[in-house]
């Protein structure tokens, strides 16, 4: 089922990409109404298939799979024939691979001048790093993600999700939607050069700019806030204290000052005062929150207008009442894992995408041609 109001309902996309960025980008557009055919190598398919059925399913539900060997001349001709009837091609090869296959933007535009080619690569189509291999951690490292100190006792550790890949997929989906609509209006397609490194750099650069000059003393950086941090509780769990506005510090002080009078110190009453005494404030908060269990703190803060949250574990997350109420995550049969709905609520409604996971090469060539001809 597609959203009846969506301008993407008759958009057709050929998805050559694998793993996360490209498949996630096209899955977002699929949820908004686009028809996506996944073009996979006949023998192995998308590399994420080897990581487990639920991993592949996460970003490929609702698509259909066509097996083509793009190293084969006959299959390349089949691919070009399909390009004639589609709006966009998404690929995640290294720069130059599509051109060497004879499927670069110029070749695609010859058969379909309105085609949008979206190339997602680590460092983009140009620049001194363009040919470098890389994965999420490499892009984070080179985009200044760890150049931004954020804790009094800061340390470098890997993020828990693939931030660079998700940044690129979201930028790719947005760019694709704009480019496809523009091509339909003006009849002229274009080549989108999506760099994973550029995408995460656009997120990290503003804060890294503020951190310049504090390399020798990172704690002095304005990006380090002593009261906006994670704190360990008595039972080894953690809570998140999200204090930015001064009113929240004053609320915390009022709530806990009777039991912990050090919080009433007037030196800490303003943001500037806490900034001048970062080490002392942070150490004080560590002592405070270490004195009780996470459950006890959760109870103590219940009903108070304070940005304090328990750090949920994986099981608690999916039982959380807000997660359940919002419905962004939908439960599927155990072997299929979960489905993640498009995380924006449309007042006109957005139906669920199909739960069906494509089998490798399930779509016949004749059926693929119908998708890009009769349905168009």
Global morphology: elongated
Number of helices: 15
Strand content: 5-15%
Rg of Cα set: 25 Å
Count all strands and give the number: 11
Structural class: alpha/beta
The SSE order reads EHEHEHEHHEHHEHEEHHHHEHHEEH
Most strands sheet: 6 strands, parallel
Tell me roughly what share of residues is in helical segments: 25-40%
Distance between the termini: 17 Å
- Mean pLDDT metric: 95
Neighbour order of strands in the largest sheet: 3-2-1-4-5-6
| Low-pLDDT segments | none
How would the blueprint of this fold be written?
Layout: E1 12-15, H1 21-31, E2 35-40, H2 53-58, E3 64-67, H3 73-83, E4 88-91, H4 97-100, H5 105-111, E5 116-121, H6 136-142, H7 163-186, E6 190-195, H8 196-211, E7 228-232, E8 238-242, H9 246-256, H10 271-276, H11 278-289, H12 294-301, E9 308-310, H13 314-319, H14 321-326, E10 329-331, E11 338-340, H15 365-371
Could you explain the architecture of this structure?
The protein starts with 11 loop residues before the first strand and ends in a 5-residue tail after the last helix. The strands form three sheets. A six-stranded parallel sheet has the order 3-2-1-4-5-6, with helices on both faces. It has a three-stranded antiparallel sheet with strand order 7-8-9, covered by helices on one side. A two-stranded antiparallel ribbon has the order 10-11. The protein is elongated and about 75 Å long. The protein is an alpha/beta fold. It has helices at 21-31, 53-58, 73-83, 97-100, 105-111, 136-142, 163-186, 196-211, 246-256, 271-276, 278-289, 294-301, 314-319, 321-326, 365-371, and strands spanning 12-15, 35-40, 64-67, 88-91, 116-121, 190-195, 228-232, 238-242, 308-310, 329-331, 338-340.
